[in-house]
Each structure stands twice: as C-alpha cells, then as structure tokens.
Specification:
7-stranded mixed β-sheet; 533 residues; alpha+beta; 15 helices; globular; binds guanosine-5',3'-tetraphosphate; 8-stranded antiparallel β-sheet
C-alpha cells in the first residue's frame, strides 16, 4: 500500500524529525505587512528567488494565494494553505491565515494547527483591532508569540512606547531580542541584545533581494552611528534593568514575547526572525486527545483536518482537506482510519499546497501540513489515525453574527443546491442552520462576517451550478439553548431557534434588548454563548 518511500526515509526517527519542525502562523491586522513578510521569509530561506512570487497584491507579481476571482477583485486573501521551506537544519511550516476579519473562523482553525505565532505590528499603528482579536485566540490556546515591529523604515511610534503598549494591551512582557538603532523612519540596524553587536542593514533596490547584513562590534558601531548607537544601547540597558531580557520559560508559557524590529519590505530583520524560529520557537509536542492520554509525537500516525479548500484549481474543481500531522510518520498511500466514520481512508493523493503551487508529498512528520485531494468525506475537525485510536477535540466555532436564508434560484436544481450547501457546511465556509419550519429548501446560513456569504454565493453559482438568492435576516445574536428550552424561547416574539449540524440549538435574537427581555421572562432559560473560544 505504500508508495514513493525509500528505506532511508523509513529509517528516519520520527522524534528527531518532529524536533526539527517549526510550524507557525502570522497574526496581524490587514496591511501590517503579512504578505510581504511571508515573501521575505521564503526569500531568505531560498524557497523563491525573488520577492513578489507569493502574496503580492496590486502592482506586484501575482499572488499564489489569491486565486479565487473574488479575492483577486478585492485584493484580499480568503483561502489559506501552507508554505514549507528549510532553514539551517530546520523544516519550517508557515501556515497562511486569511487577512480579513470576516474570516476569523478560518484563522482560528489555522491557529489550532500551529505551535507558535508571529504577531506582526505596524510600527506606526501599534496594536490594532484584528491583531488583538487574534492575540486573544493565541492566548486562549496557550500559543507562544514572537512579536515583530514592522515598517521601522517609516516614521512611527517610539520603540519604548510600543513596548509599553504591548504590556498594557496584551499583558505580555515584551523581551526584545534586537533593539533599533535609529528612530522609526531612520532604520540603520539593530543591537543584537544577546551579543551586544551591531547588525547593520544595507537596503537593496525595492527589497527584492536578500539585503546584506554586516555585524560590527560595539566600538565600531559607536564610531559609525554616534548618538543613534548610544541611545539604542542605553535603551537596551534600560530594558535589561527592568527585567525585559529574553526568557525561554516565560516565552513558552505565554507570559513573555520576544520582540524583533524589522522592515519586511526592505528585508531587514527577516533573517533574525528565521533564527529565532529555529532557536527559540517550540517544536511539535504531545497533543491532548479527547478522553485519553495526549498522543506523543512518536506514537503511530495521527492528524486532524483544520481546513477544507475547494476551487483552488478551477479547471479541476477539486477539493483539498488540509491536515496537520500530530504524531507518527505520514506516508502517501497509507490507509488510515477516519475517526468520525470509523472507515478506512486512502491517502493516495497527498499534496503540499501554497496557493497555486502544488507538489506531491510522499512523507510528512508532526508539524507538517498535508493536503488530501480525495477529502470529500472529511470535515473540518475530523481526526485521522493509524493503529491506536485517537480523537482530537473538535475545533470550536465562533458565534455567528450574520444570518441569511438561502434558496436555489432554479428550483429544478435542488440536488445541486443541496450538495453545494452540504459541502460549504463541511468545509466550514458558513454554518448552516435548519428547522422543520424552514425546511431543507431554505436553510439559514450563519456567518461571523458578511463576506463569508459572498464566498458561499459565488461558489454555489460557479462550482455547484446552483445560483442562489440570499435574504438577509435581522438577527445579530446567536445563543445556545437546550432542547427543553427551545420551544419556549422559540415562541417568543422576534426569536427563532434553529439547529446546527453538530446538534447545537441556536436561538437567534435581533438585538441585546430582546435577549434581556427574554431572560427576564424566563430567568432559568439556558442561553449561552456558543463559542468555546
Ligand atoms: P498584509 O498582507 O498584512 O495585508 O500587508 P501587505 O504585506 O500587503 O502590506 C501592506 C502594505 O504595506 C504594502 O504596501 C506593503 O508594501 C507595505 N509594507 C509591508 N511591509 C513594509 C515595511 O516594512 N515597510 C514599509 N514602508 N512598507 C511595508 P501597498 O502600497 O499597499 O502595496 P504595494 O503596492 O507596495 O504592494
């Protein structure tokens, strides 16, 4: 049953392979420079030869991850995949997260598949709303965070003030690994705080090639940079005096965050980030399982689906289920067990995908991402395993805030309509809510952000050949209730109770006042936030 493996590969020790994996995602507010940083990282790791191949937007080379027409038209990235490259002796998996807040749920799922995250901050803007939202997710999941202050080549906030903002808004202790020489807008280089040396940057034209970095001892730096160097050293000492030196234990415990200063567009500080990922970011560890011992990385193969992706290749109309390997070795062709159904699942078509680029994967190890082409039966959150049974906790869903009834424009295409809705539901593109009253022909789509509806509408028409009408409903709040309470709550004016596929019953309310009035009428009613996040 096994394909494409060699005895050398089979002999490799899974524990060792896991130890040299680093899987992370970048969290940031749109426009902070995530796409630029992704390109720069891949460039440094020599995965690509010139920046601009991966995620460039308007004016830059065509992006690999913006493949849906809609994404291209809007210049946003909805779909996520992963980029794998090696750096030093380490295999780095960078999982792409959608930039727009409407797709927070997708981002959340991606964050369930990483071991660390990079929080990218625009030096001029500080911590913005979407960054804070994603930070909260990382905190909740205990994901260690590395912070990058980006765009230091442009005028921005004071470096010490930014550190204070991180402490105030996140509660994390910033422990800078580098400190900028020159204020924002006059970026000359950084003090490497562990050695005390000066890392000087030389800009390249448009940042398109790896920028040379020279390392100078402190005396030479002082002679060259004068007051800018002295200020940087003073501030760095000040940080040391207040206990803001890098500390591996508190970083891994999610108490402190190492900080780097960078200019992604000029390729400054990117090298340092790669070194930090290799030297301090955690490798995959044992993963907690439902009702059992955590699965160790060298246990038999296991993985979970964190992302479904369709329409990546419009000529094939295919569907990929992305899994994160949690334990053991994945070998293309092996037959694993699909936890939810208990049925065997063949992994003949395994791929690695970042945007349009795809390569066949023969083997993968804990921390790696594999795209399974024939994953139509899989759902987001499903576990796959070999030998010893394991079930990973379901991926929590967000509380939807937007609701719309969906109907087929052409009643004769009911089959296509049903198939499309079921598929969008399995992929987690939107949540689908049903009730006997509304029937199967007009279920309610529920979303965290309205752009999810646009994706659903677009895909129903182009992929499932069933154009739909979407009628927005006036609800804004969904609260979980029980079967016992559903009838009572559902009978209240302006309130409706619908069932989600996972069995959850959601009571929909138009506004908070309606919620409090129903609570006043029924003080004992079960009405809870549906999110586990
Ligand atoms: P995102 O994925 O986080 O949304 O951000 P993206 O990388 O697309 O960057 C947003 C804008 O910020 C881009 O400019 C990009 O060139 C710029 N940028 C990213 N990093 C830096 C940096 O370190 N310094 C400076 N000065 N700018 C940076 P744009 O004008 O929107 O697009 P483009 O025409 O340059 O592609």
């Amino acid at each position: 049953m096994r394909h494409g493996t060699t005895s050398v590969v089979q002999d490799l020790d899974v524990g060792q392979e896991a130890a040299r994996r680093r899987s992370f995602a970048v969290i940031s507010h749109p426009d902070a420079g995530k796409s630029t940083l992704t390109e720069a990282l891949a460039l440094h790791a020599h995965a690509i030869t010139e920046a601009g191949h991966i995620n460039g937007k308007s004016g830059r080379r065509h992006t690999v991850s913006d493949w849906m027409e809609m994404e291209q038209a809007r210049g946003i990235s909805i779909t996520s995949a992963s980029l794998q490259f090696s750096y030093r002796d380490t295999v780095i998996n960078l999982l792409d997260t959608p930039g727009h807040a409407d797709f927070s749920e997708d981002t959340y799922r991606v964050l369930s598949a990483v071991d660390a995250a990079v929080m990218l901050i625009d030096a001029a803007k500080g911590l913005e709303a979407q960054t804070m939202k994603l930070f909260a997710v990382c905190k909740h999941r205990g994901i260690p965070l590395i912070t990058i202050i980006n765009k230091w080549d442009r005028p921005g906030l004071d470096a010490l003030a930014l550190m204070d903002e991180i402490t105030e808004k996140t509660g994390l202790e910033p422990t800078p690994l580098t400190w900028p020489v020159g204020v924002a807008g006059d970026f000359r280089g950084v003090v490497d705080r562990s050695s005390g040396n000066y890392v000087r940057f030389t800009p390249t034209s448009g940042g398109a090639h790896v920028a040379p970095e020279d390392v100078l001892p402190p005396a030479a730096a002082a002679a060259q940079e004068g007051a800018a160097w002295d200020t940087a050293v003073e501030e760095s000492e000040l940080l040391g005096a207040s206990g803001q030196d890098y500390d591996p234990e508190s970083f891994l415990a999610g108490i402190s965050t190492p900080v780097l200063f960078a200019s992604a567009v000029r390729n400054f500080g990117v090298h340092a980030l790669l070194d930090v990922l290799v030297d301090v970011a955690p490798s995959p560890g044992p993963r907690p399982a439902v009702g059992g011992e955590p699965r160790a990385v060298d246990d038999p193969f296991s993985a979970f689906v964190f992302k479904m992706q369709a329409g990546m290749d419009t000529s094939h109309r295919d569907r990929l289920a992305f899994i994160r390997v949690c334990s053991g070795m994945f070998e293309r062709g092996m037959v694993v067990t699909h936890g939810r159904t208990g049925r065997p699942f063949a992994t003949k078509y395994a791929q690695q995908a970042f945007g349009r680029e795809r390569t066949v994967i023969d083997t993968a190890y804990p921390g790696d991402v594999v795209g399974l082409v024939n994953g139509a039966d899989l759902r987001v959150g499903d576990t796959l395993y070999l030998d010893k049974k394991v079930e990973y906790p379901p991926l929590p869903t967000f509380a939807p805030e937007h609701f719309a009834v969906v109907r087929a424009k052409d009643a004769g295409k009911y089959k296509q309509f049903r198939r499309g809705v079921a598929q969008l539901e399995a992929e987690g593109v939107v949540q689908v809510l049903r009730s006997d009253l509304r029937g199967d022909q007009a279920p309610v789509l529920a979303a965290v952000g309205p752009m999810q509806f646009e994706v659903a509408e677009h895909r129903m028409a182009t992929e499932f050949n069933s154009p739909v009408y979407l009628d927005r409903l006036g609800y804004t709040i969904a609260l979980r209730t029980t079967r016992e309470w559903a009838k009572v709550i559902g009978a209240e004016r302006g309130v409706e109770v619908l069932a989600r596929e996972d069995g959850e019953l959601l009571a929909l309310f138009p506004d908070p006042w309606r919620v409090s009035s129903v609570r006043t009428h029924h003080p004992n009613a079960v009405l809870e936030k549906p999110t586990a996040a």
